[in-house]
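Worked problem 6 (solution included).
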Amino acid sequence: MSETTNAAETTAAPHRYTAALAADIEARWQDFWEENGTYEAPNPGGDLAGDADQVARPKKFVMDMFPYPSGAGLHVGHPLGFIATDVYARHLRMTGHNVLHTLGFDAFGLPAEQYAVQTGTHPRVSTEANIVNMRRQLRRLGLGHDPRRSIETIDPAYYKWTQWIFLQIFNSWYDPEADAARPIDTLVAQFESGARPTPDGRAWSELSALERANVLGEYRLAYASDAPVNWCPGLGTVLANEEVTAEGRSERGNYPVFKAKLRQWNMRITAYADRLLNDLDALDWPEAIKLQQRNWIGRSEGARVDFPVGDNKITVFTTRQDTLFGATYMVLAPEHDLVSGADGASSIVPDAWPEGTHDVWTGGHATPADAVAAYRKQAAAKSDVERQAEAKDKTGVFTGAFATNPVSGERVPVFIADYVLMGYGTGAIMAVPAHDSRDFAFARAFELPMRCVVEPSDDRGTDPSTWDDAFSSYDAKIVNSSDTTISLDGLGVTEAKARITAWLADRGIGEGTVNFRLRDWLFSRQRYWGEPFPIVYDEDGVAHALPESMLPLELPEVDDYSPRTFDPDDADTQPETPLSRNEDWVNVELDLGDGVKRYRRETNTMPNWAGSCWYEMRYLDPNNDDALVDPAVEQYWMGPREGQPHGGVDLYVGGAEHAVLHLLYARFWSKVLHDLGHVSSAEPFHKLYNQGMIQAYVYRDARGIAVPAAEVEEHDGGVYYYEGGKVSRLLGKMGKSLKNAVTPDEICAEYGADTLRLYEMAMGPLDVSRPWDTRAVIGQYRLLQRLWRNVVDEATGEVTVVDTEPDEAALRALHKAIDGVTQDMANLRFNTAIAKVTELNNHLTKAGGPVPRTVAEQLVLLIAPLAPHIAEELWRKLGHTDSVVHADFPVADPAYVVDETVTCVVQVKGKVKARLEVAPAISDADLEAAALADPGVVAALGGAGIRKVIVRAPKLVNIVPA
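Solution. The predicted structure is:
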């Protein structure tokens, strides 16, 4: 539309709903809401206590996964979930609920640190500037957040409590008898009394401070250990498994990732594996997310079996202990302690190859130590996914050691191979090549023996050397599995498992056990921009928790924000953290209760997941300096209740990509805090909803480089970049780097925030991804213009509604819309709710003439959650002085919801002879009488008698003549 046309229309209709008018309306009402505390949700007590009547209403806690404050700001894809929860929360307020809805910022993380490295700008400065910009963008959308409750994870007043929670976890252990976390002091008391023996049998009082610390470290829920980690030299930090791509590269930066052993902090999340698994059943989550968590936790039942090897033993976990007689070799993960090197204290690797070692087993190396070292380096460059892939060629190397099969007494060679991972079981397997495809392929490659111990159900016979692949079955008989002390021959798999497990336990060389795929959570990062650990070390290396009075431990100033990075391909490096360079901060003198002593601070920082593990709790009581959260406040908003046995947030909306990261970690923290009595809720989020993604076309030139989407055009059957050249087009993500981002500011400037809100909600079902089309936005803009015209005269600005009773057609249209929108709002079906509002508005437009006030007011209330600014303006113009935010949502009159008449089909001998328009509530007797009196039915019967009349009121009558 040209500027001339716009000017002419403005002159003819100065009070038309335009982008300029929308901007004025929206800014005024946003100021009003802020000045009047419209969205403040009172607590039952404390600093945020308020209206007792509002607190007495049913409560609802509605949350979004909070955003990271990127320097690029928001594009139109980001607010999809925020707008949806805002619409839902507004509807809840209008239906009589006390609604807690706010938004904070997950503000620690690598992007700000990398920006600091590049520019020298302190991460706090850039992050806080980004937060200011995002708050501005979010405010412009009219989101109804309680601003008093917003938090930032980088605020020391916030991360004081993140550090406090870490200390609760550090000072706890998981008591299997209580099936819960308990304070570490209760464990110390058991050691002191002798109720629990120390590992070497000495009295607790005889152990040194370091020895005691090491013993407790085996139990603490937060502990430091030397463990295999994902070391990324290019980033200078270690990464969690979930931060490594399937290609074995860092998710951020795409650098190579290697396996290394470093001393790192871990969270013993594995102690909670069963509870994390079992409690999923009571959560209202998408089944796909529950399945992902179940698979990630990976519970499996089997047996632990010890294989002697020299003075050591190799412990394996197997779910097929019934095939133990078929184990002809063993495989250790390259990272296994027993193959740490020829000089390792617990190593099984001999100095020379045993006599008769097969050439293919040595990998061409002169000694076992050389072979092991070379192979470990090769395996360290592969991701876990690559290592587990069903590759045709199996690789590995003989360690030079032999173990003893505990049931057959046979010597079996011990290999290392990258298809075995330390992240599952014990990092060691007994290889039964006849009945496992990977073992079969490895055995073929290394010319290892195979023994059939599960009778094949086909005609392949029992000689594995003639097979094309392994045979695996849970429904077969065991064969070739007996000696003088035990026989499994002829047993089914289940019975054989039970017998061999009992046999192992009787001899103390194994036991039935449960294993999990879940690994303990690596909790250290070699970065600056993260929460400091509230831990110091004494001169003996013993870790001490800082007392609560010393929290928060704030980040110090440093000259260089970057961790020391290395050649991305150099695996033989060690991390150096930015904090370690500040000697004045690292080395301190403190009095921890036993006099002033020198200590060294922990120089790693917490991962960016730490602050998001508990933020829902801080929303409840953000100004509490004395406690994480007031117990009464937490009980009110998140406590267990009918239908929510574990408590939690009533609705949590966010992306499905967080299924096994944030969601699993947050559940773990909640359970620990619940066990220790700090909160009543054992789960953080009762109901989870995953919104889809707003996508956009990505245009790439012949080089594969993205070109600006705004600068391409379609013609002559193709898509062309304005600088020349045909480009490809593919639907994908929206983002700055893809040059296809559209900002909310752009759409708000051209159409207004209410139009943007409506368009994003109308694009399709909330849980489905959908393509952005700026040209389609105008459809929702026109809906608002028609709504405005039904209430306001565009020429004079006067309200045009009339105080007359609506006709029946208007009442039916109104109440059907109310009924449908109410149901849609409750089920987050905002696209169909908008369709029903549009239908009602169109009905009023087509009817012509002034709209009855009662209908206009209820129409405004219907659209209020979706387009709150225009709703507030029209509500005020209609003479109301209160905010529409807390007005009562319309209630449908059932009498007008049902159709006025329905069509009843009348059949005689199965053929339709009449169609009757009848009332929906007509009785069977009345419908039968009407059908028999119809002239068409009378003619069809031709005077014949009636044997039976079947009535299915109000839609069917079937008459069977005599």
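Discussion: The CA atoms of residues 759 and 777 lie 6 Å apart.
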